[in-house]
Amino acid sequence: MTEDRKLLTEFQPGRGYSKEDWDEVSDTPELTEEEMRQARPFAEVFPQLAESLKRGRGRPPAEKPKQQVTLRLDADVIERFKAGGPGWQSRINDELRKSVGL
Description:
This protein is an all-alpha fold and 102 residues long. The chain has six helices and no strands.
């Protein structure tokens, strides 16, 4: 293992877990060679669950996905929309839709 990925044998604070977490799992026995040989991938052992996890991530695809473009706007126009708080890009989109009759 690299120096920053060495196997720890005692608790060190500041690594993203508490002393209680460390104590909870520190006595977990290592897998034997036989257990390692018998190990199978999660998706093979639980295919339906693995598929549901795969499908369940992220936002569902939009019917009409928006397209990213580069557009130069006057600074005062951008400031006015940003002053309205989060969602300013969507408000610009809404105003453009109105102006073209959509």
